[in-house]
Amino acid sequence: MNEFLQTMLSFPTLVWSVIFAFCIVYWLLAVTGLVHHDHAHIEAGSGHVDGHFHADGHAHHDHAESAGLLARLRLDGVPIMVVVTLLSFWAWVVTYFVQLLVLSRLPSGISAGLGVLTLLGALIPALPMTMLLVQPARALFAKLNPPETRPALGSVGTVTTPSVDELSGMASFADGGAGLLLQVRAQPSNRFKRGQRVVLLEYNAANNTYFVVAEDEFNA
Questions:
Q1: Residue 181 burial (C-beta neighbours within 10 Å; 0-12, 13-18, 19+)
Q2: How do the domains of the chain map onto residue ranges?
Q3: Burial of 195 by CB count in 10 Å (0-12 exposed, 13-18 middle, 19+ buried)?
Q4: 41 C-beta neighbours (distance < 10 Å), count
Q5: What are phi and psi of 6, to 5 degrees?
Q6: Radius of gyration for the chain, computed over Cα atoms and rounded to the nearest angstrom
Q7: How far apart are CA 70 and CA 47, in angstroms?
Q8: Tell me: the pLDDT tens digits for 132-182?
Q9: Residues 36, 42, 44, 50: is their CA dihedral positive or negative?
Q10: Cβ(36)–Cβ(29) under 8 Å?
Q11: Where, by residue number, does the polypeptide cross the bilayer (predicted)?
Q12: 60-114 pLDDT, tens per residue?
């Protein structure tokens, strides 16, 4: 028991111990109702963020970047805190055993340097393990959330990612409520930049994306 505590409270394991402990406390408080459990999540495949957009443009941009990153990593479709909890748990497991079996047996100077590498490197195996567990959890959270109301074709939105082309891109659209953040695509010959206004022209059910054109072109 002493060895367990010593390893858990030693660098670099301590960092992930604190993060994972915070996640546990969060979920305990959420269960007891002492904190509001926000079910905000990134909609699988669509980049739709449940929750209100802030009036601050920087906050809106952060939502877009976070949605795009989680979608690319296939960590969308579940509450963000689920992703953080799983990621911190697996990173903690990796750092714990590296500290126990390797770093604790090395001179302090060497172990400190390798500890920094271990702290960050733990994310490499933790990420695929988290992705593996998120996949089956998507179905559960899909049942807990109402079906998405799709925006009408012809809706006008604003590009939120650095660019939109035939392979990637996201744009925000008003829906009379919280707003939608959708995966959009353009023709190979077109490339839209952040802030440009685009119009939904066609929905691709195969990959849950929307084909868009420039608002000026649509109105021409």
A1: buried
A2: 2-41+77-144, 156-219
A3: exposed
A4: 25
A5: -65, -40
A6: 21
A7: 9
A8: 888 777 767 666 655 455 677 888 999 999 999 988 889 988 876 667 888
A9: positive
A10: no
A11: 14-35, 78-98, 110-134
A12: 445 555 666 666 666 767 788 888 999 999 999 999 999 999 988 888 788 888 9
Enter the DSSP assignment of 150.
Answer: P
Confirm if 96 and 7 have CB atoms less than 8 A apart: yes
The domain defined by 156-219 folds into OB fold (Dihydrolipoamide Acetyltransferase, E2P) (2.40.50)
Write the single-letter amino acid at 146. P
List the structure tokens of 89. Answer: 């748990």
Residues constituting the chain: 220
Whole-number Å distance between alpha carbons of 207 and 68? 15
